[in-house]
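Q: My collaborator sent me two sequences in one message, no labels, and asked for predicted structures for both. Can we handle them in order? The first one she listed is below.
A: Yes, handling them in the order given. First sequence, followed by its C-alpha cells:
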Amino acid sequence: MSKYVCPMHPEVTQDKSGICPKCKMGLVKQKGHSKHEDHDKHAGHSVSMFKNKFWLSLAMTIPVLAYSASIQEWLNFSSPAFTGSEYIPFIFSTAIFFYGGLVFIKSAISELKAKMPGMMTLISMAIVTAYLYSVATQFFIAGDTFFWELATLVTIMLLGHWLEMSAIAKAENALDAISELLPDEAEKIVDGKPKTVKVSELSVGDVVLVRPGSNVPVDGKIVEGSSSVNEAAISGESKPVTKSVNDEVVAGTINQDGSIKVEVSKLGDDTALAGIMRLVSEAQNSKSKTQVLADKAAFGLTITALIAAVITFAVWFVINGAGYALERSVTVLIIACPHALGLAIPLVVSISTTLSARNGLLVRKRLALEAARKLDMVLFDKTGTLTKGEHGVTDVWATKGYKEKEIVSLTASLEQSSEHIVGKGIVKYADEQSIDTKKTSDFSAIPGYGVRAKISKEKYLAVSYSYINENDLTIPNDIKDKVRGSAKEGKTEVYLVKNDKVIGAIALADIIRDEAKMAIKSLKSMNIQTAMITGDSEEVAAYVAKQLGLDTYFADVKPEDKANEVKKQQRDGKKVAMVGDGVNDAPALSQADIGIAIGAGTDVAIKSADIILVKSNPIDVVKIVKLSKATYKKMIQNLIWAAGYNVLVIPLAAGVLFSVGIVVAPALGAAIMSVSTIVVALNAQLLRRVDLSS
C-alpha cells in the first residue's frame, strides 16, 4: 500500500492523501527506497534525545572515574571502599554502554544493512570491543579494563552528536518558522457571517474574512476591503504592501491595517508559501558535487580506519601484548571516525539554503548555486527583468511660447481617460511631478494614433508620429532634431497638437530599473560579462544597453531562438546564467548553466529555473554569486580541516610516536575527534555572518 508523507515533516505519514497537521502542506506519495540509497545516520534521532543521554551518561561517568584504579593512581587519590565497590566501574559502564551507546550500535546496524559503513560503524566497533574486553578482564582473564575509557568515550560521543544535531536544527529553524505562519483556522463567510472553520475544510471559491493582525490563511484575491500586508515571509521585503479589491494575497503573510475578505484561489501545497518550503526542503536534501566528494572520502576513510585498526592490533600484539594492542586499535577506530567529514558539507548546505531563502533566493538545484561562483556571463531578458515593463516619461520638449510643465499638463489632461500604456505613463508622470491636469470635453480616441479632446474650448490632440506624417503636420525646427533623435533610441514619441500645430512632444521608454544598473555594475566588478537578449528592435536594445553599461546585447531575438543564443555562448566555453521571467524564456532558462527566474510572486514553482528570485530584483543575481562563493569557501575549509585532521591523527592513534613518549589514550582520542567536529560546526555557522547586500 502506498504511504503519504509530508515533504517538510517526514515523520508525518498516513495511508491516504491529506494535509500535514504541523505545516498544512499537502501530503505526497512516499517514494520507495532501496538499500543503496542515501543513508541518514541521524534517522530517528533528535536534539533532546542526545542532550538527555549526554547529561545522564555524564552523571554515571563520575563514579566510574572515581573508582577506576588508573585514575586514582594518576591523580593520587582513593575513593571510599566498601563491599562490592570494585564493581562500580563495571556496573555504571554497563549502564552507560546500553543507555548511551546503544544508539550508535543501532545506527551502525543500519549503515551495514545499507552497505555504507561509516562513522557509526567505527564508533560501535570501538565501544563494543572496549566493553567486551573489559568485561572479560573483570571476570575471566588477566588484563586491564577499559571501563573508564568506555564511559568517557560514549559520553563525549553523545556530546559531539548533541552539538551536531543542535547546529543542524538551528539551520532549519527558518523553515519551522515559515510553517508556523500558516494558521490552523480561518473565518469562512457563510450566509454573510464569519464562521470559524479548519483551513483544511476550505475549498477554492470560498470567501474568508482576515482581520487586522491576522495571518492570511490561503492564497486568494481580495473581494472586499483594503489594507497593508506584510509580505516579508514571501519576498523578504519588510515594507508593507498596500492591497485593495482585486489584488492578490498570499498565505502566511500578515494583514496589518483593515479587515479584508479574500476569495480562496489556492490551498495547501498549491500555495506560494508551501511552494517556497518545498523548494527549500528539496535544496537542503539535494547533494552538491562537494558533498559527493565528502561522502566518498568518508567511506574511504572508514575502510582505511578498519584496516589500520587491524594492522595496529597485530603489530602491538606482537610487541606489547593483547591489552595494549586492543587499546591502540580502539583508539584508531575512535580517532579516525569521519564525524567532522560527515558534517563538513551538510551543515554548510543547510545554512546556505536557509540564508538564501531569507534573502529571497529560492534554490531548486544545489548544483546551480555551486556553479554560480564560476559564471563567465549573465544573460538578461529585457522586459520585466532589466526594465519594469511599463512606459515612463524620459524627455519633454516645448516649442517657443510654451513651458515643459505646460506640455505635460495638457497632454496628461488628454490622456486621463485613455487605457493605452503610453497614456497611462504620461498621466503617472504628471502625478509624480505634482503637475495639475485640466478638465476636458468632447474626448474621443483616434484609433491607432492617439486621442483628441477640448480644453477651454481649444482643440488638442495627443498623437503618434504616424499621425503627424500622414496629415502633413510640421514639427517645429526647435524640437524636431531632438524628438526624432529620441526615436532612433527606440523611444515612443507623443506629439501635442493645438489647432493643427505641434506645440510640444513627450518621449517615453520602458523604464529601466535602478536595481538593474546596480546589478550590472556589481557583476562587472566581479569580472562577469553582462549581456541582454530581447525581441525588441536594434535601436531599443542599443539604448537600454547604453543606459545600463552592458558589455553586449542581442536584439530582434525571437523567444524560440533565445536558447540557441545561450548555446552559442556556451560553445565559446562560457558558463552562462540566463535571467528571465520563466515563461517566454523557459527554453533559454533550461539551456543555461544556471536558469534564474525573475518574478516568483505567487507562481513560485517555475519549473524551468534552477533559482527563483522572489523579490523580482535583478540585484539578487549578485547575491547568488556572493552566496555561491561564500558557501564553496566554507565547504573547502571544512573539508581541508576534517580530512587533514584524520590524516595527521591516525598515525598518532596507532602509536608511531610511542618511542618518544607520545601516546593518545582512547578517551583523549574521542575528545580530539569531538573537538574537530565542533570546529567544523562553528566554521559552518560563520556563514551566517556573510553580508549578501554589501
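Q: And the one she listed second?
A: Here it is, processed independently of the first:
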Amino acid sequence: MILRPRAEDIAVIGYYLSRIILGLGLTMLLPLGCAFLCGERGPFLDFLITVEITFVSGLLMMQVCRAVYESGKKKASAYEKSIDSIDPNWMHGMIMVALSWLAAMILGAIPLWLSGHWNSFLDACFDSMSGFATTGLSLAQDLDHLSLTHNLWRHFTMFIGGQGIVVVALSFFVKGFSGAFRMYVGEARDERILPNVINTVRFIWEVSFTYLALGTAALWAVGMKNGMEPGRALFHGACIFMAAFDTGGFAPQSQNMLYYHNYGMEIITAVLMVLGAVNFRLHYHLWTGNRRELLRNIEMRVLFVSILVTFIVTAVGLKTGGSSYASGGFPVLFRKGFYQLLSGHTGTGFMTVYAEQVGKEWSDLALVGMICAMALGGAVSSTTGGIKMLRIGIIAEAFVQDIKKVIFPSRAMVEQKFHHIKEVFLEDKTVRAALMVTLAYIILYGIGALAGMLCGFGFIPSLFESTSAAANVGLSCGITSVGMPAALKVVYIFQMWAGRLEFIAVFTLAGFLLAAIKGK
C-alpha cells in the first residue's frame, strides 16, 4: 500500500524550497546592478520585475508552509519542533532539489522572455533550463543585439548551475539547516570534499572564483590583442569563462566561438573546459599539493583514453566522409575536429563550426564518434554531464574482475581495486549503481532520439541532438531551432533537467506525486 504524503511533508519541502528561491533572487541582483551601471533601462525593469516576483513568491511560500506546518503541529504531538529546526529527510531533500531546478527555470526565464528576444515563454524556459543545466542549446533570436544585462544573466545561470543551485542556496542560508548533505547529494554530487558540507560548498566557490579571476584575465588579454575594446573584451572574457569552466556552451555572439576565430581563445577555453570536467574533489587534492593523484586517478586515465579513442573515430569519419576540413590537411582537421570533440566530451558545447555544417558535412561515423564522446561526459562531482568517467572505469574494472574469475583457479579469491583519491575495493553494490545510472542515461538518450524521429528527423541526427541535451552538452547538428515542434522542446527540457540531476531526485519526485495521487 502506498501512503499518501502528509501535509507536514509538503510544508517542509515548500518551506526549504522557498529559501532556495530567495537565494536565487539574491543572485539576480547582479544583472540588476549591471543594468543600472550600464544605463540599460529596459533590462533594469525586466530584472526589477523578476526580482520582485522571486522575493514575493519565496516569502509568500515560506509563510504559507509555516502556517500549514503549525496547523499540523497542533493536531499531532510528533510535530513539536518549529519548521526552522526540522531536519529534512532524504525524501524531502531529493524533492526539494528536483523542484528547485524547475523553479529556477521558470523564474530565470522571466527576464529573458521580457527582453523580446525569445518568441515564447516556452522558448525562454528552454534557454533558462539550458543555462542552469549548463547545456548551451539556445532558442534566442537576434542574439547579437541582446542587451549586456540579459547576456550576462544567460552566462551567470551557467555559473550558478555549474556549482549547483543548492550550493548557491547553502552559501546564503547555512544556519539551522542540518539536511544540507541530502540536498547536496540530490544535485548529483555524492562526494564530500571536506567532512563538513558547508566547508565543501565554500571550497567549491573558492576554486570557481579563483579560476574566474585567472580565466577572465587571460581571455580579456586575448580579446584586447584581437582588437576588442577593453570593456567589451572584459565582458566577453567573463562570459566565455563562465560558459567554459562550467561546461555550458553559451557565448555572447550568435556564431559562438567561431565569432572570435582566434587560436589563443580556443587554447584557453580548451584548458578551462578540461578544468571544468575535473572532479572538485580532485581539484582539492591538486590544490593541496597531491599532484600524483592526477596520473593515478581512474577518472583521469579513463578520460584520456576515451578522448583519444573517440577523436580517432571522429577524425576517421571526417577524413573519409569528404568533409571540407580534410582538404586542409591534419592541422585544420585537428583544429576543427578535436576542439568540437573536446567540447562535446567535457559537456561544454562550444562550437567553432556552424551547426548546419555538422548536420550536412559530417559523416555518420564522425557523428557517432561525437555522440559517444558526449554520452560519456567528464568526471563525477564536476560541472559536466553524461554518464561520467568513474562509472565507465568501474564497469571496466568489473569486466576485468569477471575475466580473472574465469582464468584463475576456482579456489582463488579475486579482489579488484581501483584508485579514486584512495585505493577502493570493487564491490557489487558499486558496480550495480554504476550500471543502473549508465542504463538510465542510455534510456534517456533513446527517448529523445525517438522523439526526434517522430518529429521527422533522421535517426543519427536525432540521437546526436538527444544526447547533447541529456548529457548537458549543447552541440547541435541543426535540429534545435525556434521552428522545431513544441513537444520536442519540452522533451529536451526534461532531458536537460533529468540528466543534470542524474535521475534519483527526479524519480523521487515522480514517486512522491504518484503517492499523492494514489496513496491512502
